[in-house]
């Protein structure tokens, strides 16, 4: 599967903020750390504020704070704010003879979608953060900020 | 919360386990009697039945065992039952029981633990994800036989 850029930026931002719910970070803080577009991230953050996932703090030193529950919020909760995960078969004009094949392909892609959703809907932010720490977040922080790959950024 | 201990199940735990697992319209008494014979009375190190106890109350249980060559798999640990009392969830009891059963299974000679969970059971799936389990090498397949 390939997440769209908005979903990916949202996941990065929410996880970064959820690491320390007391901390406030600006769009620039997050964009600079991950080497992503600050302009695009600002749009994503507005959506996250609107959905109540993060809270915008006004004034000097303002920024964003995580407003959810890391044990209750799943990856799917964030992703589905920006996209649906249903597979699409791009065959708008098939004739009747194609229907059995298309139907079977729909069945297979539906299986894939069901498993994908089950995984994303049961991986909580807490689990991701725990695994992130376990795989050496400290080492990553000591390194210069890197850019996420162009392919991943869409 | 007073001190919770994780210990091996004993035959006198049977009624409490049945009560913990009770669901409307299902009588699992016979099932649990068989499970106790196999996992408690037999007293084998490769079959593990643990309970969480606080005072005189049982708050949860977890059951697993070492299985070999099912589905072509070399020996591995299988956890096939886990329950924590509704009133004490999110208190770390499940984590303690799972950690302990992994230790027991490791001592019994395996380095992998597996389980299977209904795809709609988000609570249990999230728990096992949190314990570090991921989609494994085997895919469950099924078909209705009409």
From TrEMBL, chain A:
GO terms for cellular component: cytosol. Residues 134-154 are annotated as: Disordered. One of its GO terms (molecular function) is DNA-binding transcription factor activity. Keywords: DNA-binding. It comes from the Bacteria. The keyword Flavoprotein does not apply. InterPro entries: TR_Rrf2-type_CS (IPR030489), Tscrpt_reg_Rrf2 (IPR000944), WH-like_DNA-bd_sf (IPR036388), WH_DNA-bd_sf (IPR036390). Transmembrane segments: none annotated. This is Winged helix-turn-helix benzoyl-CoA degradation transcriptional repressor BgeR. It comes from Citrifermentans bemidjiense (strain ATCC BAA-1014 / DSM 16622 / JCM 12645 / Bem).
From TrEMBL, chain B:
The keyword Transferase applies. It comes from Citrifermentans bemidjiense (strain ATCC BAA-1014 / DSM 16622 / JCM 12645 / Bem) (Geobacter bemidjiensis). It holds the Pfam family Acetyltransf_1. SUPFAM superfamilies: Acyl-CoA N-acyltransferases (Nat). This is Acetyltransferase, putative. Residues 4-146 form the N-acetyltransferase domain. The keyword Zinc does not apply. It comes from the Bacteria. Keywords: Transferase. GO terms for molecular function: acyltransferase activity, transferring groups other than amino-acyl groups.
């Amino acid at each position: 599967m390939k997440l769209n850029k908005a979903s990916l930026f949202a996941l990065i931002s929410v996880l970064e903020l959820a690491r320390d719910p007391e901390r406030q970070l600006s769009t620039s803080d997050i964009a600079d750390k991950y080497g992503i577009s600050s302009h695009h991230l600002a749009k994503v953050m507005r959506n996250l504020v609107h959905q109540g996932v993060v809270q915008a703090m006004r004034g000097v030193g303002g920024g964003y704070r995580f407003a959810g529950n890391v044990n209750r919020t799943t990856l799917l909760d964030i992703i589905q704010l920006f996209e649906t995960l249903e597979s699409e078969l791009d065959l708008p004009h098939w004739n009747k003879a194609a229907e059995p094949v298309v139907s079977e392909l729909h069945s297979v892609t539906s299986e894939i979608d069901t498993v994908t959703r089950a995984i994303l809907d049961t991986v909580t932010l807490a689990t991701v953060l725990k695994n992130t720490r376990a795989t050496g977040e400290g080492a990553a922080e000591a390194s210069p900020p890197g850019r996420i790959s162009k392919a991943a950024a869409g | 919360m007073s001190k919770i201990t994780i210990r091996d199940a004993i035959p006198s735990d049977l009624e409490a386990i049945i009560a913990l697992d009770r669901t409307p319209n299902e009588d699992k008494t016979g099932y649990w009697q068989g499970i106790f014979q196999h996992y408690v009375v037999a007293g084998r190190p490769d079959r593990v039945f643990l309970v969480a106890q606080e005072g005189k109350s049982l708050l949860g249980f977890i059951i697993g065992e070492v299985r070999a060559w099912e589905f072509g798999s070399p020996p591995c640990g299988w956890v096939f039952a886990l329950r924590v009392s509704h009133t004490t969830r999110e208190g770390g009891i499940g984590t303690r029981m799972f950690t302990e059963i992994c230790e027991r299974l490791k001592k019994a000679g395996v380095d992998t633990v597996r389980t299977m969970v209904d795809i709609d059971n988000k609570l249990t799936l999230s728990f096992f994800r949190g314990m570090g389990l991921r989609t494994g090498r085997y895919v469950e397949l099924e078909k209705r036989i009409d």
